Amino acid sequence: MSEVHFIDTTVRDGNQSLWALNMRTGMMLAAAEKMDRAGFDSAEFFVTVMFRKLVREHKENPWDWVRLGTKRFTKTRLRWHGGLKGGFEKVPSCVLRLMMERIVGYGITLNRTSNCWNDYEVFREELKGLRSVGMNTVVNLIYSVSPRHTDAYYARKAREAAALKPYAICFKDVGGLLTPERTRALVPLVLKNAGDVPVEFHAHCNNGLAPLCYLEAVKLGMKTLHTAIPPLANGSSQPSVYNVAQNLRALGYAPAIDESVLQPVTQHFSAIAKNEGLPIGTPVEYDQAQYLHQVPGGMISNLRHQLKLVGMEQKLDATLVEAVQARADFGYPIMVTPLSQFVGSQAAINVIVGERYREVTDQTIQYALGFWGKEGADLMDPNVKDKILNRPRAKEWVGWEPPEPSLEEVRRQFGGHGISDEELVLRVLAGEEHVKAIQSVGAPKEYLNAARPLVRLVEKLTNKSDRHHIYIRKGDLSIHLEKREKN
Amino acid sequence: MSEIRFVDTTLRDGHQSLWAEGMRTGMMLAVADKMDQAGFEAIELISSSHLKKCVRELKENPWERVRLVCQKIKKTPLRLIAGRVNAFEITPQSVYQLFLQRMAANGLREARISDEWNNFGSWERKVNSAREVGLKPIVNLIYSISPRHTDEYYAQKAREAATLSVARLCLKDPGGLLTPERTAALVPLITQNSNAIPLELHTHCTTGLGPLCCLEAIKLGVRIVNTAVPPLANGSSNPSLFNVARNAEALGYTPAIDHQALKPVQAYFTAIAKREGFPIGAPVEYDYAQYLHQVPGGMISNLAHQLRKVGMENRLQEALEEACRVRAEFGYPIMVTPLSQFVGSQAAINVIVGERYKEVTDQSIHYALGRWGEEGRLYMDPEVKDKILGRPRGRELAKWEPPEPSIQEVRRKIGGAQTTDDDLLLRWLLSEEEIATMRAAGPPKEYLSARHPLITLLEELTKRKGSSVIRVQQGGFSVMLKKKDDRAVS
Prior knowledge:
The structure holds two protein chains of two kinds.
Chain A: E1 3-8, H1 10-18, H2 25-36, E2 42-47, H3 50-56, H4 62-72, E3 77-81, H5 93-105, E4 110-113, H6 120-132, E5 136-142, H7 151-163, E6 168-173, H8 180-194, E7 199-203, H9 210-219, E8 224-227, H10 241-250, E9 254-255, H11 263-276, H12 290-293, H13 297-309, H14 316-329, H15 339-353, H16 362-368, H17 374-379, H18 382-389, H19 392-397, H20 407-413, H21 421-430, H22 432-437, H23 453-462, E10 469-474, E11 477-482
Parallel strand pairs in A: 1-2, 1-8, 1-9, 2-3, 3-4, 4-5, 5-6, 6-7, 7-8
Antiparallel strand pairs in A: 10-11
Helix pairs in contact in A: 2-4, 2-11, 5-21, 7-8, 8-9, 9-10, 13-15, 14-15
Chain B: E1 3-8, H1 10-18, H2 25-37, E2 42-47, H3 48-58, H4 62-72, E3 78-82, H5 93-105, E4 110-113, H6 120-132, E5 136-142, H7 151-162, E6 168-173, H8 180-193, E7 199-203, H9 210-219, E8 224-227, H10 241-250, E9 254-255, H11 259-276, H12 289-293, H13 297-309, H14 316-329, H15 339-353, H16 362-368, H17 374-379, H18 382-389, H19 392-399, H20 407-413, H21 421-429, H22 432-440, H23 453-462, E10 469-474, E11 477-484, E12 488-489
């Protein structure tokens, strides 16, 4: 019987897709040992943007997550999500490299990362850098829907990706747009053209189809799937590990996973979701409209917000229609961060101003100049490009290069030689002020397993200050708590 | 651009699938006007199982439900689901005929005709009965999966149905087992073989595929889709009207429905669900195992219950596997009521007794005798049939003839000459005592629209006897009620 392997995404993509990265270190730690026993091939563990989130919003030290978490996952190979390119943030490469070195120091030697154009020429250089610090890389091959993203495109891109000899290729459906039909067409193509490079499949459930696409993919030879543990599965996250494993068994495959040990993890995160008001992932209805504009849900709410600021919230539909046009003008970029934001923002501006490209964002100019990928400049409609670049602001950007300071320069700027590498990475990624604000914070808050109500009860009772004795009895069990005078 | 029309199932299949038929007449009346305004092609109102539920548990008169709803829904044709009068007992033709006649007399206008074997003779009888009493017949082609239910089977059934010259056929998928692929195969096939009689699709979301099958069917020419208004859509119910309409629109079709008119209906039933503790239909995960045993979810819990009673709850998986074997030996009946229950009960007995068909139900015997459809007798595995019929009880039942009394005879036997037709039908299904208890409960309870909490508040306050002035203030809003000489409340 054919084995199927699982990569867990719960604390990374599950957390990112459903909880806006609001999982605290203690929540992850409380589940880690159980997750470690299920037999996952690998588990996504951290994404670079969590540095900022944990420091700024949770007042936690992200290195605690890394240090304490790597101790508890002893069997499962952990994965970093991200690479050496700064994306939006324009973080200097030397800092990301330093970060990677530190991560490898904690024993995490596997990462997964994308180029938003599936541009494997650009990837080649990044991969070299990652290899040199001891990181093995899974490169993404991102799925998209457009006249440009044909079967032939994916066959070619799979060949290009395989030529880099990465650790693996991950066929990734970021918008949850794959259908069973497209899966049937593309998976055999990707597998064939990847040659002997292993291929993984990573899809989102935004449209309810991912659990079906996974089964189609396995029928066509896919051996490794990305899943999440409920309540961090479904919704806009990955399919549920239970659902996929159960369906595969019914189809006669052998999922290489013991999901029964994960039930306490589900209980743990479900209890946390309820206590903290975090969403519980559920299957969603199929939505055909997502194929029309392909604007991610998170961005739609953002656009609505932008339009509201100028009192034009009734123009949302017009903006979505305009986004279709802008995406075509831009040469059909994949609707993935940051490109989808550029398209969406420019579409909103076009609608607000009432004339296409009369006003443009700096990012639109940078895009037209190829700063966000050479393909952007090459594929953009020439007339639109002229209109965008034929303005004084554009002239200022021509020839600009993102600053690439040396590590020495960065260190000088962020506090000098007295600070450690980890501290430096933190300061650059999360902001110096914010990092200082967490200096006094101690160890991350513990999240007891909420499936143990007794522990919670005792915890609550010990918080009571007006009692010296508490005696509870139920059936055969009694608890006696006594407060002693402090010495 | 092509127009897509909708048959609403909220008041019938929606709560049958999700609320165990617990929707009360008053709840229906509270939204009836709005539903009538939405532009539905038809609205499903009732099937025979609701009659029992109404009387026994809700203590409401189902005929009154039909009459009251018909008074409020005048533009949209209301529809009867006309399978059997009594799912588990063999019913005389005269009783079926009276059942249709009374439904028509009380205001229904259409009947969706069903036979669990897709049997032509049965369709013909029922279609004629419906026509005779003035109900417009729609004929179900029930979808099933088995070696017998091939494309050719459905082509043949479509050809047979077409000879009845009904206005419409309905591809009905009670188990939610249709996939987009099977929809794509069957819809064109049925259309080609039925002289293009307009085809409705009625599917369930039991394994999450219903909404996708609707779109696939629409792309292939289906113009009438059965949907429910949330929260009575999804789960094991029909697809959501809003979802199918929105997706059809995104595909370039024109849904002929007024969404806005139905938003209050959704809000109302959501409030009812919360107040009464009824489930809210939500999309479910795809479950491939359902294709293996095809035992409906409601039946699985029943099997589990039967096994638990004899301390064998750990053998459910075995019982499900046995159900697959029994279904094959029974000649692959469609897994719908009552046939699915016959298969399931016999499977449970086989597992509990430990020897297959050593003990059999009377229904297994009747099935083997062809009393639940000639096909049952024809398709059953001959050895199994011999084993079932070659016992004293088998021989005893073989001699019995299903009676076909006239209505006069039925009336003489139950109720007597004074009994109205409507009551006679209730008496056929229920005991005298059950009906008396229902009558004693009085008229159906009124359910105000939950969107008007203020009205509810005022209503409750005016019931108070103890005070003559009541003042309620919240923020900038205040209400004062004053009692004047016991006569009026202002």
